[in-house]
Please model this.
Amino acid sequence: MLTDGELTVLGLLVEQPRHGYDLERVIEERGVRAWTALGFSSIYYVLDKLAKRGLVEPTGAPRSGKSRVTFRATDAGRDLCAAATLDALETLTPVHARVLIGMANSAGVAEERVAAGLHRRLDAVREQLAEVRATRSRQEPLPFAASAIFDYGEAMLAADLAWTRSTLEGLVQEVAVEKYDVKKVHKGLYSPPSGEFSVVEVPEFQYLAVDGRGDPNTSAEYAAAVEALYGVAYTLKFAGKARGRDFVVGPLEGLWRADDPAVFLTRRKEAWEWTMMISVPPWTTEDEVQAAKEVAGKKKDLAALEDLRLRTLAEGLCVQTLHIGPYDDETPTLDRLHNRFLPENDLAFNGDHHEIYLSDPRRTAPEKLRTILRQPVERRTPRS
Model:
């Protein structure tokens, strides 16, 4: 096997005997560095490797130091070069462009900064394409093989240019179209103060929902529910975006219930019943959810897909606060809510304990997790 650099150098020596500086000149003139990572300092390293394998040999004693040693391909080198050349012509090489990693991670960067990065890429590709065309022009007319190499390089850069321009235009258009974001539309409900309770009026919301029971840390049923919710939510988002009604997928939310509310204070999680939810825009229909379930199910086997449904929830009067820290540290806050704040304000339970997870536990340190604790309530009837 030969690396790309080794095959390039060997091919140039099959073409005719050359010394290191001559190889550098030809590599520079032909624009070889546009498609191989072959620096000047690595040419002699490659020559040494090829010589040790018996693929090239010096043609005679150097006139003035190692830099003027002229090398030529041996018979073995010519044979291997021919075989490797045919393999290179036939083999499809996967594209591992670094920009793909950038696009994969771009969701965590502000869209304006992503657009600025793509603008800079657009300028860089244009500049590189201009350089390749100028290099080609200086050497015209070219042999067929050399001309084909330049054709390929220009085609790749032109395709990159078109892709970057199209991606940038799509991103700019997306930024220009305001997305429905439940956290912004209902900012007061999704940004409560930490360390204090506030009484709020919660209107009717629509959710994707899945019911279950058991410890969320160990239950396969819980993991399947969350996976199905996100799978369908993002399918709905992309379908809506195609129709011009985009939205930001809301945070994961959970309704928690038990026969004895005290199990939430004692953290007896095996006795918890739950409904995991993700909010969806008010225009979402049953038919759209069903279609999204079918599409998501074809892409991946989602164990809880059949249990997922569209539901509405109108909690009305609620008390809520922002908890910062591990989930298991919620107990003192809940104890203060249940046994002090509600009785002192003549309020009583009127629905399931509701949690809204503003942080991704996979990427956030436990002490920085942000969770809204919400409790539907009703005012007690004054005693006569």
